[in-house]
Fold this sequence. Notes:
Layout (H helix, E strand, L loop, with lengths): L1 H31 L4 H13 L1 H11 L26 H8 L6 E2 L1 E6 L2 H14 L3 E6 L6 H15 L3 E7 H6 L6 H5 L3 E5 L19 E4 L7 E5 L21 E5 L2 H17 L20 E7 L7 H12 L3 E5 L7 H12 L3 E7 L5 H6 L1 H9 L3 E5 L7 E4 L3 E5 L5 H6 L2 E6 L2 H15 L3 E2 L7 H13 L4
Membrane topology: Multi-pass membrane protein
Subcellular location: Cell membrane
Pfam families: PLDc_2, PLDc_N
Amino acid sequence: MAALTLSRLLSLHGLAVAVGLLVYVVLSHVRHQRRHPSAAIGWVLSLLLLPYLALPLYLLFGTRKLTRAGRSSLAAGAPRPGDDEAAWPAQTAAALGQPRATPYRALAVHADGSASLRALLEVIDGARHTLDLCTFILGRDAIGATVSARLAARASAGLRVRLLLDGVGRMLGGRPDLSALRRAGVHLELFVPPLQSPLKGRTNLRNHRKLVVADAGRATERLWCGGRNLAAEYFEGTPGHPAWRDLSFDLQGPLVRQAADLFQHDWAFAAGAEAPGTDAEAAPGAAAGEPAAQVIASGPDQADDTLQALLVSAAYRAHTRVKLVSPYVVLDDALLMALTLAARRGVQVELLLPERSNHRLADIARHRSLRALASAGVQVWLAPHMLHAKAAIIDDALALAGSANLDSRSLFLNYELMVAFHDPGAIARYGAWFDLERGTARRYVAHPPGLWRDLGEGLVLWIGFQL
């Protein structure tokens, strides 16, 4: 009996030592992942209080960066002194490893879903050589069916057509049937299907980028991009459910090659192939007075938190205005402080978001940020409809548009894509779009939370730092 008891004690001791060592190793990994404070604290508390539950979850969801420190392989070199595009936005982006500002032409901004759908189908139908499409959601609905049929037709016509669909996003879209696409010759990859590689810690790193690239590097090259997934609610809606307000754009010219390079890297990662070299170096710099922009990649494939760093820098550099729009707003401390300080020093800071989004937890979690912003003088506006657009306008120096929300998932976890426009014409167009959308919104009024509300917000922020 004594021997049996001793054996059990030794077994328990060995288990405790093993768990302790594993917790120590994982906590060290958490510290070196450069998380923002709320996420780091959430993981540490979970690992200390509930190690048997938190450890397997961390193995599934814990990895945040898949690249070593240093510049992204997409970087094509920083602007040189004397370059026309070497203003602070381009310099900051280049310092974060992004390609240099590159010319583009024929920008069309789609505030209307029907116009966006027409442009999308024109890009698909107009391709003559290659067609690459990346999306988070491909809906099992009329829009998804239309896009799929057009892709299949282009592949049947002899074009190289590739579709990159996020593994989780596919399920959120109702698991559309992809067999017809494969039969038509469309090359298809799912981006990190759930639980496919759980021990690599990549399950929670989703590809939220949305882009369609046609004929990159050729005279007919064209890019369609923005915040819209390929499902009915983003374009035309369904009976009884109007389409969401969103923002997308299409353009032509050398900038398309930067988006093509980014797609190629994502495709190689999803396929388990070696990432190719970049062709962005071959794209010309912009001449004086020529419209210029940069593709801004943010996510696990970037050494830095590119978009968050660019927004923080922009808030500190702003002189007259900062206009932000996002469906979900849960700010980290650094960005929150940058925006509140900008408002306090006289910059007109405005934030536009839906009065009620499609994610209830995000609506609960946002109020701490909104109260802090409003108390500092930020004008927070609530749109009466679902607003899914993502954009930022800083002075007359920078406009950002693309896929990234102003929340922890987009800023620190997701693969995201924004395009940074530097020319006054594009910046003015996005500013006018913002003012038009704000015209239907009401001003947010902050109210001190009650005890239970405050506890509920804190709980959502704690357990939802990965959501």
